[in-house]
# Entry
Amino acid sequence: MGNLNCYAVVVPGLEAIAADELNALAAHEVKADACGVSFTATMDGLFRINLRSRICTRILIRLASFRAMSFPELYNKSKKVAWEQYIGANTSVSVRVSCSHSKLMHSGRAELALSDAIGDRLGFEAKDAANEQQILLRIDNNQCTISLDTSGERLDRRGYRIHSGKAPVRETIAAAILQWMEWQPDEPLLSPMCGSGTFAIEAAWMAQKRASGLEHVFPFTHWPLLKEKRWQRALDKARAMHAEQSARIFASELDAGILKQAQENAAQAGVADMITFQRLDARKMTVPDNDSAPGLIVCNPPYGDRVKSDVKSLYASLGDVFKQQFMGWRMAVMVPDPLCEKALGLKVRGRLKIKHGGKWVHVLRFREC
Ligand SMILES: C[S@@+](CC[C@H](N)C(=O)[O-])C[C@H]1O[C@@H](n2cnc3c(N)ncnc32)[C@H](O)[C@@H]1O
# Structure
């Protein structure tokens, strides 16, 4: 099998950072667009990217693209896809359809046409299926694109978050912010208001070069075309990258119960001893050890959907403490609105706009010098 046409679904706003990551993972023809990143990869590349991407939400393969003006045409063209390479006897198929600006606007009928085409091509229907394969059909301007999901559960579900605290950031967002801030494992990292500990845990995994998908269950492991030895080789390579590391990662939180949850998440991720946890009011934070080189602060403060004035004063204190205590450090802060941004009172040196929890928020980059 030659190069596969792939598409990475990413959190809106992370397209460019995901494209950089895909280039680093040796994907080809990487091109970010408004919703994700298209690229080509070999099957080995697809394994590697699913195992090691920290930023992509899921990876699709584009199997077919054609025009269809009627449901029989959709059925006939869908039947030409070599479904037997991807769907075995113990796999059930779930089809998701979206239609826009097209003659075929009835998503239920489109789903039926595609499901029938797959069933008729295979000549069997899975019974008591142990595995599920998701297939996506997008019909836009009469152009049908059929994609195969290769990731199964979303890749941000790393498996370590047994507690989620309050309004946690997705693991992919935390990893992307660390990449965007060019955090290096040899510099100190402070995660005040750490909540469930996502920034600290992602940083620890980066320091260890631990592939984030090692525990993930991928649907391609059930594809009839899978070359088991090649998959095992990709998995072994990803496992071999993992090295025990020491790092200066400090996570703190005001709420003792949430802090304990962050510690339990870190233990689940196998990095509890790489992170120093402390119960601390972020307004009182200081450089962790006085002679250490400047490092990075990353935080996602509360958004104050209920008590706005308290939150504004928290952002103002965060700005003050950064100016007074953290000469030479960098900081990334997720802010929900211009009022919080203004309250920080710091010169913004970079800005990333991302969708988080259904809202657009800005991640601001600061440097105190
Ligand atoms: C939006 S949550 C952070 C979510 C976190 N990034 C995650 O992924 O789970 C904000 C956190 O800030 C904590 N917090 C609020 N005020 C604080 C303060 N003054 N000092 C330290 N932590 C505070 C809250 O208890 C809450 O856990």
User: Anything to note?
Assistant: The two ends are 53 Å apart (CA to CA). The mean pLDDT is 95.
